[in-house]
Structure formats: C-alpha cells, structure tokens
Fold these 3 entries.
Entry 1:
Amino acid sequence: MKFACQHVCLPIQFTTLTLHIIIITEVISYHMSQLRFMVLGGDDALVDKACATILGERENRDAFQFGELKPRKAQVCGRQVSVLKTPFRWLEHLKSYFFFSKRVKSLKYDLQYYESLLFPGPHAFLLVHRDVRNSGSEYYLLRALSEVFGEKVLDYCMVIFIDRAKHNDKKQNTCLKMCGGRFYILQNTDVSQLFKKTETMTQRKHSDFFINHLECFRKAEIYFEAEYEEKMNKLRGELAENIETAENLKKDMNDMKELNAKKVIELNEKIKNDQKKSKDRENELQNELDALKSSKNQTKEDFKLDEELIIYKDREKLLLSRLDSYKSSEKQMTEDIKKLKRELSIYKDRERNT
C-alpha cells in the first residue's frame, strides 16, 4: 500500500498520524526485503560451505562454526538474509530406526523448534546434496519434513548442489522428484539467482514463506487485516480533516493579507491628507502674521494669531507623532505578513515533498 501525506504546520496529532503511516510503510518494506533459509544435509562440511556461500562468507573458512543455535544474518544483494543450519546428525538418526515413523517421532520436537527459530517461517528449506546422480539417503530429511509439517512443506523445498555438480540426469534423483525438480547450483559467490528462484517458487502460493499451522494463521490474518483496514480508514478520515484545516488556514492567511494591504493604503492616504491640510493652514497663518508684522501695528489679533500658530504647530507635532505611530504599526503589520508568508512557504514545501 502507498499513502500520500501533506505536511503543514498543524497540531501534534497530525504529526503523529503522519509518523504512524511512515512506520507502517517502513515495516511492510522491511518484511518484503527479508529472506529466511533453513539448511539441511548429512555432510556437515558441505552444509557449512552452502551456508557460508549464501551469506557471502565463503572465503572465511573459520567463520561458519555453528556452535550457537540461532540463525545467522547478513545483508546480501540488498536483502536481509537469515540462514539456520540444522544438525547433520539428523540424517544418521533417521537411518538408525527400523520403522521410519519412530525415527520421525524422535525428531519431531527438534524440527518444530528449529522451524520456529525462523519466525514467522522460512522462505525455503534447502537440502544440500553432493551429487545429482546419487540420491543417497538425504531424501529421509524431506520425508521427515513432510511427516511433521505435512506434504505442503515440500512446495517450499529446493535441492542445493555445491560447485560443479553434474545435473544432466536430474530425473533419476529422488530428492529432486520430491522437490518438484527444483534445484540450484552454488558455484560462485553470486547468490542473487538463488533469491530470485526462491521468490519464483513461492509467488503463486498463499504465503511467500512456509507457515506451520496455516489455518490458524489465515484466521489471524483475516482478523488483523480487518482491524488494520479499520484503523487505516480512521487515519484517512483524520488526514482528510487535517488537510481541510490546512486549506482553511491558507484561505485565512490570504484574506488577512488583503485586509492588511487595504488598511495600510487607507492609513497612508489619511496621513498625507492631514499633513497637507496642516501645512496649508500653517502657511496661511504665517502669511497673515508676516503681513501684520510688516504693518508694525501689532494688536491683540496679532497675539491671537501667534497663539493660533503655536496651536497649529503643536498640532503638526501631534500629527507627526501619530505618523510615526502609524509607520510603526505599518512595520509591525509588514513583519506579520512576512511571518505568514514564511509559514505558507513551509506548508507548500512540505506539500511538494509528499
């Protein structure tokens, strides 16, 4: 599944929603890149060589000493690969009983336990074989797998030959027949074709990897898919609401910008008109005062004009003070507009990134 997200400056719950979607997609991508192999065989050295080749450690002869009972992991061809080597003594054990059912019963717990170590299940069971012309007794291991996990497990089995094993008479090999003729020859360190062959083997099956007790997992899968879909629908609803909030915020920012622009123009016009009127009246009074002074007949009216001139000069100072205040207010509005522009730019950048 692919999800489209738009990032804007919204409340914390929107960021959490986006984070949840990113985590879900990352988890899906991570599981799709994994490959898990359970390797079986009766020749310990040959099995070690196969495991080391798959994990890219073939040149290091001492690296593959399987003392610990756990899968070995490595990054190979861009995939997270896990390899679990099984005991070579299993084959000898299966040959030691007269009745095969008793032999399998004695190994049932071990087989189930090893398979569980590759949870949720191995993508392939690899049976390491030395010679395609000689079936040997390795087919006992395939029979044991079939007895413990059911015949469906053979659909996930493949025979592995080391280096230049001859394979011109593969139809005569019992192990190959049980595995549906699937085999791969490990003759160099490039195992990308083995990975592709494993994907081809499982692509038409219900699951990309073998699952023990498949019916239980299917029921669980149906349950979790329904729960997942319900949660995703809820997340999509919340995402739609937050996108709508972002659009409303963008509209409010544009409206505020237009309103501020109109107010700035009106204030500038009013200040200019007041300044012009004040200057005209000041000039008029100054002319009258000059005329009176030139006649050298200064009367009470002269003093009145002087006082009026002083009043208008004070008014001019007051207007200039108001002008400074308006300019300061205009500057503050400009900064607010710039801040709104930055927030809008951040929103647009995040929207493009998604």
Entry 2:
Amino acid sequence: MKGILKEEYQVQGMRRSVEAVLVVHEYSHPHILLLQLGVSFYKLPGGELKPGESEEDGIRRLITESLCAENSKRVDWEVVSTLCSWWRPNFDNCLYPYICSHITKPKEQKKVLLIQVPEVYTFVVPRNCKLIAVPLFMLYGNSQTYGPIISSLPVILSQYNFIFHASFAPAEITSQKICLNSEEKSIFLNISYINAIDAIAMFRG
C-alpha cells in the first residue's frame, strides 16, 4: 500500500476517502454493518473518491458498487451527517482523528458518514466478503479486532437517542427514529434483525 499511496500522491495529491456507517438492530440494540474479508479483517463499506468527486456522490457510488445488485432499483443513499474525520500524516498505515500542526501535507483524509438505510433493502456482496452486523458493545474499545476507527463508533453514536418503534419476530423489518441532542432534526434508519440480514445478503460474482 505504501508504494501505491506514494505514486498516487505524486499524481493527485492527498487521497480523499469515505466510509459508510449503516445501522441495524437485533432486539433493540444497535448493530453496525461491516464487511468481513478473510478470518479477521473488518471494514466499513466505502473507499477512495475520484478526483473532483464530492463526498456525497462518492459514498453513494461506493455503496452501490459494493453492496447493490446491478439490476436493483436505484437508491439515493442519504448522507445524514459526518461522524468523524481521520488523517494519515505519512505513507504508512497509521490514521489519527486529528492532524498535528507540523503536518502540512497529509497523505490521506478519511471521512466516516452516517447513511440513511431504506426501510427494506437487499444487499449483494462480493464472494470474497461476508456482510455481518456487529453490536455496539462488541465494538467499543475493541481496536485490536476492529481497528481504531470502527471501535470508536459506539462513543460517536452515543450522541444519538435510539428510539425503537416496534418489535417484530426475527427476520422481519422495522424502523427506528434517531434524534440528535433533542434537536428538531431527526432521521429514520432502517433496522433489521440479524436473521433478516443473513437471509437477504446474497453473493455477487
């Protein structure tokens, strides 16, 4: 990666990337959808932005490319808010949620965005990936397994008040209202039981 990032930086400058936080639930406890590659590597859906591409357009494109079937109904993924920004100061694997004053030319900026999920949706994932829903209590403080960005999400999401409207049998879909700091602005996120996610996740060749 170090060599690729160096070559890319020389041509395009700082890399800009985005990742999506998609929230679901099992038994009224929030879970975050992650892509699992191999036995022990986990990542949020997302990736690198194209030159001149906005964060909103980029995350919509990346979610569509990684989680949607080619013939599926087009979804205009709504960006609810930017949860956090992470910086890569050098050509290595370390990212930080801040940038020091002596770093004048960071090599990457990564933004993590909260995305509105449709009430009902069928996710399609590549064959080398597995789509899993991980509860917040398993992510919290567990940077050894999930890395610093994903393990920090429970703290960041604590600013939201999760209100679960209905409780159905497993494998059914319901919805959830989330309010930020008692403000008037509120959003609805899709909430699905893990059994439902397992049932609707298909594989793309």
Entry 3:
Amino acid sequence: MTKLREFAKVEFSLKHGNLKTMKVLHTICFNNEGYSTGRRKDLLNFDGFGFDKDSELYAAKLNGIKSIDLPDLFAVCHVLDLNYIGDSEEVDERILRFLNDCKIDKDLNVDEEQEEDVDNPSNDKEDERRKEVKRRNKIQINDEEDVEDEEDFERKDDERGSFGRRRRSEPFALTFKDVEDSIKCYDGKSKENTQFKNGLMILKKSLI
C-alpha cells in the first residue's frame, strides 16, 4: 500500500506542520499521540488501515474521528491535502476514506473550484463555518527550525518525566544499631572517668 510520504504535499506538511495537528493525526492513525522522537516518522510511514468499509473496525474508527473537534479536523484535512467543504459528517468520512486506502481520490482532494467556493460562501448559514475553514487554511506552516525547537522541548520534557516534579521526601527510620554506634563505649580509662572518680572522693570527704 502507498505510504503518506509518497504524496508530495502531504510529506511536506508532515515534516513541517503544526505539532498539535501531528498529535491529532497520530491519534487517529495509531490511537495515541506518539512520542516526539518518532511521531512524524510514524505518520510518514503510515500506509492505511485497510479496513472493510462495512466492518466494525471501520465504524469504530469513524466514531473515534467524530469525537475530535471540528477545527482540529480542518487542520488534519489541510495536512492531508483533503477537501474540507461540507458538514462535519462528510469531513469525518473523507478523512477516514483517505487514511483507510491511502490513495488519491478526486472526491477527497482539494481542487481550485472548491477553493473558490471557500472564498464565495453560498449562504449565511455556512458563512461562519467557512470563515473558520479559511482561517485554518491560512495558518502559516512552521518553518523547520521552529518545529525542531518545539519538539526538542517536548522531548526533554518526556525525558525529564517524574524528575521534573517535586520529589516526596523519603521516610526516615532510626534503628537501635544507629543509636548504639553513636554512643561512645565506656572503657574505664577515659579522662571523663578520672574526673568522675575525683568528684566522688571530694563528695566523700565532705560528708565525713
């Protein structure tokens, strides 16, 4: 099957695209956001689900896509070079159809006529939604240096993990051995012993 890296526009978008969108797309493809060190590589090598369109797996994946916010799906369409005109159900189905087969379909991809439709909304009801599509379409793709800086920060955050949080102090336990070792043994020859004996003699004389 064809890999996403084999589509020129898609390959460029996957290499340079917005980090949040990469996480959303990775969640769709692999059911998790992935790790900073391999997320884009995973997506570039993705070659489709290969589900039967009447199968439960296809239906389950479609339900998963429906749970994603529409603006994020617009961004995914932009990365995959897909047509995002229509209602949310059409957008959901379009994304899944492309990711399922990983092949170009004229009904899925953006063409010039559809882009003109975005600039000329046909009715007021869809005007607000189309404005959002235009806004998403005009988002500037991060240059490679910005993307690397962002992912480098995320990678360091992943590596730091729990060490970045305040560590709970360990409980302190004092054993009898610790106390025993800290007490100086009495040997009867120390300076303190001589002073003690002298004190006893003075006390004895004072009592006679």
